[in-house]
Amino acid sequence: MTTSAQTAMLDLPIRLVDGRALHYKLHLHHSGEWVKAREHTPHHLPGFCPERHINSDGTFCLFYAGANPLPVIDEPSARAWLETIYKYLKLQERARTLRRWPNRSAWAHGDAARHQLRVQEAVRALNGRIGNALPVDQLALKRRTSKGRSILDVLSGTTPLFSVWEKPQRVINQKRRCFCGLYGRRLPKRIRRCHDHAKQATELALALRDWEEAERQYWDSMRGKPCCGSCDSCPLSPQIFV
Question: Among 66, 69, 197, 224, which is least packed, fewest CB within 10 Å?
Fold first, then answer.
């Protein structure tokens, strides 16, 4: 590694499962507790690709500071940062061959990550069937109206879990048995009496709605930027982003 005041060059070989090694030359920039990294000259990676978590300035999107910040303040934190870079670059090679990002636990784009975190926190509070659905991307949101009132339906795959009135921000039919699967003496508790699950279910529906909207706004803000062509379903592709 060679260093100057706030920058460094790092030669980092990435060992792949087939025995090959990819040799990366990285440009690092240090500011306060944070270190940004990018490929010095784009060779193995695109210069920009949101789907592969490469920012418009070429820096790597390694974490979401609101959930898992990665400051570099001492030797242990520097090692943790370097391990994150190493895993990230190994995932990049898989993304290149799969033509999609291979890790489903990646953070959403832009402000959508904040709402993704809200979803995760609500799911942890609800546990049960819903907690098992989120890691495999099974949670879904449907919008509909009834008598002019907006309703948010939360589903696990194609199975309805619960519905929320969007404006009053309240779970519909709280007398029904709770969807969490937790039992009282004989039967599942009713939603309104099952811990704070009515509140958390409402938060989950609203967070899913806001996550979806923030993703849409993010891609709208990317309109006109070139697509690198390395991912099949990238919204920047002229065939998709119209």
Answer: 224
